[in-house]
Amino acid sequence: MKMEHVGIMVNDMDESLTFYQNVLGLELRNRQWLNDTVELAFLFFPEQPSVEVELVKGGPVEKEGIVNHLAFTVENIETELARLKEAGVKLVDEAPRSILNDTVKIAFFQGPNGEKLELVER
Questions:
Q1: Cα 86 from Cα 80, distance rounded (Å)
Q2: Which of 33, 48, 81, 109 is 20 to 30 Å apart from 70, CA to CA?
């Protein structure tokens, strides 16, 4: 029916929340402890509130079905890459790559837990 959320395992919830809120611009919807060892936080973009990024701290890390990356749409990829670099984010791609017959620009960068993240300009 629709995309619900993507879960990302994190090492430090506060650091991850700071990154996803202050660097990427998501808003915190809910943060709570699931039990004594697992903490969850749900974030969203105001322009797309029905899809969430779920940060998960604690609990077992599963190896099966590993998600390769999480992508974010941007209007100007060069501007966003410069902003991320200035914020101290580790860029995998210093400059965007063109794909799909030069109709899409992409660039990868890393989140605070080493997660692979992507910018997409269509």
A1: 10
A2: 33
DSSP state of 20: I
**pLDDT (tens digit per residue) in 58-85:** 988 777 777 889 999 999 999 999 999 9
- The residues with which 52 forms a beta bridge, in sequence order, are 5, 44
CB 5 within 8 A of CB 54: yes
Count, residues in the chain: 122
Q: Give the Cα separation of 73 and 34 in Å (integer).
A: 31
Contacts for 23-29: CB closer than 8 Å, 24+ residues apart: 23/84, 23/87, 23/89, 24/72, 26/53
Is the pLDDT higher at 67 or at 9?
Answer: 9
Is residue 98 within 8 Å of residue 114, measured between CB atoms?
no
